[in-house]
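Protein Record: Sequence and Backbone Structure Tokens
======================================================

Structure line: whole-number tokens from a learned vocabulary of local backbone shapes, matched to residues.

Purpose: to set a sequence beside its fold so the mapping can be learned.

___
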Amino acid sequence: MYNSNLKAAGGNQREAIRRTAAQWYSGNPNLANSTKPQGKYPSIASYSDSIADKVLGSSGFGSPISGRSVAASLGSDGTSNLPPWKPSAGEGDAGKAKREAEKRRRDAERAAKKVADEARRAIEQADRDKAASLAQQRSDRDLAYDLESRRGALGLSGDALTRYNENRSVTARIRRLTDDREDLVTARGIKLRDGVKGGVDYSAAINNLDKLIAGEKSLNSEIDKRASRQEEINRQSKVFFDNQERTLKIEQLRSTLKEREAARVMQGLDYQGRRERLVDWTRESKMAGVNAASESIMRSRGCYELLGSLE
């Protein structure tokens, strides 16, 4: 104890003795100049000075380690040539009080450490419970997402089904990466809370995950754009084919109308022919009737003339 204080005092013998006394009295050699009152006991500075005065006396006051009076009174360890020092009653009581105070301080530190350990265990258990609950929530969410994906794929085929599966797959990867990022943020917070130095660089890991998430989102956006372009192509194709079908139907309708018009014309012509034939027949019938009547008249007249001649 003395040799370390002698070195700390730069070889000053009196200062080394004062520091040794202060260390024994208070537990801290750096309090050798403290004049703070110690209740009914002397201050640390007063106690240190009194010990130095008793050890060195007036002839050695303030002398360096090379002083003759100090060399004559001290051995190699600085105390072996001195008679055993016995504190006075007041000094003994002060030392006892200091030791009791130190014991109380250590007991308080142990009690505080016990409370801190219990609090730490409670915090760690809360962290574990939170992690387990979060894991269950994520599992339920992923299961629901998988079922939703299966239902959404029903009725799809070809390119539409491929784009749908790509989109759902990328979205699932983004969710997993986001979960990993949340875990890293939580771990970083625990590390800062616990005052842990070194270890994993969570900030760098979070930055890397942010880049991966941005890349996956960009890919998902590109898939959506391709799907939109394909839908536009399909829409335009449908419009084109609808127009083609409409044009064909119009042409068919026009052809049908032409055929019907031609049929009506033919029917009209046929009716006109039949009408003309009927008129001709009627005319011929009338002429035949007229001729028959004339002939009958002529015959009657011939008969009358014949009868007249016979008379």
About this structure: The helical segments are 2-8, 13-26, 44-56, 68-73, 89-153, 158-194, 202-310. Residues 117-231 form one domain.
